[in-house]
């Protein structure tokens, strides 16, 4: 019994230790606690092919900036989480980043469903969110400026798909897609473009977890389309393409670049993917920022998402430097001052940007994904698209426009 | 009319893919008396084992099926006997929940070894054959034949082999079987090997028809479970009938409800069956 008696001295010592523990984080802060950034990318699931390279690009910039002395005299620390291309897992990971790690910004959310689920947590906690998702409703969320995206929205993308189908001589365009946040807007904007030229459209929304789509293919064929727009992700698109081929479906096929990618092409017999067109938002290929990113991560042909997160981390670090403060609110208030300051010094990486900011010069960043100028809503103002076609098992560039 | 016939034909093909794992699932349930959701992982593991044999050693579909059966069977025995055996006295629900955990672990092992990418077997993809306005793929016909042979072999094994008889005896009445000198432990291991192995075979059939990734098994788990419940949990002929019922219902549903709701058909089938005939189509639990 006496063993468990607490003496006054023990109590005092305990209280003092506790007080010390509580004071510790503040103490550390005073000595320059690291600035924490979170990456939330799909390392697994449908977006699995993209997340790891995206993290690599963010990490490379963070390392580079740390090697040059960090930002505001503090090291930058990257905490990387996996959203599994799944909103539930995304929310769990975002909670961890916000509540446990206390990051200032979350970068890289990929699937629109994940971004839509994670965004409210971010603006509620005043954490900045930069995303590569394209669904229209995302920037319509009441995010109070705590959200920007480097990906063009679906209104723009849908129109490009419709116009391209017309260019290919199609009059009847059919759209197939699983249930995604951008499916409706994609179809509406394809329809607007096609009907404006007197064409007609139809759509089918399918379950993306099925081992075969034979009956779906029958339904598509009944519409007798000249062109089919494939709106799915890589796993379901693979199954669908096989079944289309087996059914002897001959209409032109147009898909998102993220779905019909090199890996999908390699996983299917050449005949099945022959002639499929793909459309994706284009990176600023050939620009200095792009070349720099290629060298930095050692990937010869980085996909658009990788170029976009590279720009996101550069912009966020510069915004922190300009604000002299690493909070999410500081990033929100300063991101446009480093991305598009009128008459600012053109920079294409954070190192040069940080030097310019230290010299009190205004900064206008042009990155590896494009000009990165944001509208009030958080959408980017301008973007080019990349049109490609699969020929003999290779994805060939047709044009960037 | 031909639309309806085509949908039914497609349903038979889908049913074939569900049937073999459903037999595996139901065999484990009949003897060990818990639903093993590990079958999703065994389907995936079988699919990958066959893929490895096919692309690395140039194995055809038949050798791939054998390898998938052996590998998935071995993993099944190791997983369920190694990790879950001590949980069995705690009741079916506990073990069932543990199989979900086991499934996640195995799925992630596959992910670790092979990555997330889609993999296709190195087999020529042939266009469909057409007759009377209907179409069917040569690979699908081959699948139906293979699945049919596998099912026949399972029935023959259960009916005529010593082990098969022992399995049926244990499924009927464990205590009586033990009195007759049957070691339930040996029967449990055999059943797990058979059940997991069959799921693996199903994985190869699924993969040659489409493609595989670490979530392939998880994607068909609901349909497999629905087929087993529909047939009367524990009845192997029931599982086959249930699989075709679910397959055909899923395809027919496309004619009346949007394709997005296709998975809901499995749920609806389970719900209707449990409400009106909880014992399933084939009544009593019997192998």
TrEMBL record, chain A:
Organism: Phreatobacter stygius
The keyword Transmembrane belongs to this UniProt entry's keyword annotation: no
Cross-referenced InterPro entries: BCAA_transport, Leu-bd, Leu_Ile_Val-bd, Peripla_BP_I, TAT_signal
Domain of life: Bacteria
Family: Belongs to the leucine-binding protein family.
Signal peptide start and end residues: 1-30
Domain Leucine-binding protein: 34-339
A biological-process GO annotation: amino acid transport
Name the record gives this protein: Amino acid ABC transporter substrate-binding protein
Keyword field: Amino-acid transport, Signal, Transport
Organism classification: Bacteria, Pseudomonadati, Pseudomonadota, Alphaproteobacteria, Hyphomicrobiales
From TrEMBL, chain B:
MF (Gene Ontology): transmembrane transporter activity
Example of a GO cellular component annotation carried by this entry: plasma membrane
Intracellular or extracellular location(s): Cell membrane
Gene Ontology biological process terms from the UniProt entry: amino acid transport
Recorded topology in the membrane: Multi-pass membrane protein
Membrane-crossing residue ranges in chain numbering: 12-32, 59-78, 90-114, 140-158, 186-208, 220-245, 252-276
Major localization class: membrane
UniProt-listed Pfam families: BPD_transp_2 (PF02653)
Keywords of the record: Amino-acid transport, Cell membrane, Membrane, Transmembrane, Transmembrane helix, Transport
PANTHER family reported in the protein's UniProt record: BRANCHED-CHAIN AMINO ACID TRANSPORT PERMEASE PROTEIN LIVH-RELATED, BRANCHED-CHAIN AMINO ACID TRANSPORT SYSTEM PERMEASE PROTEIN LIVH
Family as reported in the entry's similarity comment: Belongs to the binding-protein-dependent transport system permease family. LivHM subfamily.
This protein's name: Branched-chain amino acid ABC transporter permease
Organism from which the protein derives: Phreatobacter stygius
